[in-house]
Task: inverse folding
C-alpha cells in the first residue's frame, strides 16, 4: 500500500499533497468550454463537481487526464514535495497517477465476457478468448477485494447491476492505486442500496489510501453525507465550499432554480 499520510489542512497546502488548477481555460472548435477555472484538491478529500448539462464537467476531467489541450496550469504537489506540472515531460515518470471511472458503459446481457476476462484484458492485455493464467486471476481477485467485490470475479459483465458494474470499474481504476481518483457520474444508474454502498466505499478508500477523490454528480441530496467540498461549475467556478454553503447559495439557485441547504426543501 502506498503511504503518503499527511497532517490535516491547518497549514493549508504546506503539509498536504495537492492538485492545483490555476486559470484553466479550454476551447474546442472555437467555442469556450472552460474559462479561468481555479481550485485546489487535497489528498484525503472527496470533492463533488456539480453543474448543468454542458457546464464543462467532462471537459474538466479530460483536461486533468491529459486528453485535451488547455491554457493555464495543472500541478500536483506531493506532501512536502515540489510541484509537478502535469503537462511537463510526461515520460519522466513524475506525473501523479490518476485513476478514472467513466460513466457506466453498457454491456449486452448475452455477452459471455466475464469480470475476470474484462479485468485481465484491461490490466494484462491478455486475449479474452484464451484461458486466464492463475497469476492474472489472483491479481484480479486481489484488486476486486479492495472494493469488496471478490464474488463478482466469474460473473458475466452483462449480468451486473449498476452498483456492481461501478464496483468493477472502481477496482480497475485502483490498479495501481492512484494519487487522484476521478469518477464521472458514479451514482447514475445505481439504486439506493448500491448508492449507499458506493459512497461508504469511497469514504473507506480515501481514508485507507489517502486519495484525492473528485466526482461529478446530479444527486444533490446526498452531497452533505459524503462530500468535503462542492464545486459549482458552469464554464467557470460559480461557487466552491462546504456542501451546505454551496447548496444554499444564490449561485446554486440561479443555476438550478432549486432551494436546498438552509431553509430549502
Result:
Amino acid at each position: 500500500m502506498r503511504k503518503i499520510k499527511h497532517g490535516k489542512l491547518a497549514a493549508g497546502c504546506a503539509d498536504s499533497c495537492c492538485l492545483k488548477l490555476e486559470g484553466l481555460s479550454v476551447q474546442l472548435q472555437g467555442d469556450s468550454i472552460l474559462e479561468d477555472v481555479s481550485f485546489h484538491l487535497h489528498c484525503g478529500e472527496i470533492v463533488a463537481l456539480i453543474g448543468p448539462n454542458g457546464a464543462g464537467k467532462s471537459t474538466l476531467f479530460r483536461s486533468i487526464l491529459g486528453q485535451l489541450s488547455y491554457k493555464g496550469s495543472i500541478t500536483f504537489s506531493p506532501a512536502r514535495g515540489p510541484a509537478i506540472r502535469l503537462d511537463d515531460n510526461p515520460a519522466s515518470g513524475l506525473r501523479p497517477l490518476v485513476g478514472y471511472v467513466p460513466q457506466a458503459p453498457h454491456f449486452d446481457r448475452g455477452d459471455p465476457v466475464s469480470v475476470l476476462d474484462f479485468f485481465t484484458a484491461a490490466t494484462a492485455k491478455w486475449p479474452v478468448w484464451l484461458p486466464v493464467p492463475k497469476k492474472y486471476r489472483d491479481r484480479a481477485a486481489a484488486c476486486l477485494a479492495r472494493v469488496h467485490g471478490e464474488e463478482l470475479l466469474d460473473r458475466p459483465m452483462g449480468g451486473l447491476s449498476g452498483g456492481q458494474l461501478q464496483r468493477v470499474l472502481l477496482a480497475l481504476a485502483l490498479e495501481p492505486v492512484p494519487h487522484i481518483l476521478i469518477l464521472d457520474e458514479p451514482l447514475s444508474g445505481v439504486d439506493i442500496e448500491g448508492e449507499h454502498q458506493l459512497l461508504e466505499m469511497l469514504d473507506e478508500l480515501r481514508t485507507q489510501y489517502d486519495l484525492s477523490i473528485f466526482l461529478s454528480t446530479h444527486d444533490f441530496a446526498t452531497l452533505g453525507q459524503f462530500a468535503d467540498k462542492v464545486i459549482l461549475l458552469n464554464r467557470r467556478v460559480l461557487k466552491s465550499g462546504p456542501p451546505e454553503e454551496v447548496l444554499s447559495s444564490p449561485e446554486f439557485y440561479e443555476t438550478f432554480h432549486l432551494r436546498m441547504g438552509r431553509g430549502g426543501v
The chain has eight helices and ten strands. Residues 1-11 have pLDDT under 50 and may be disordered. The longest helix spans residues 192-209. Helices lie at 57-64, 115-124, 134-145, 162-173, 192-209, 223-226, 243-247, 250-256.
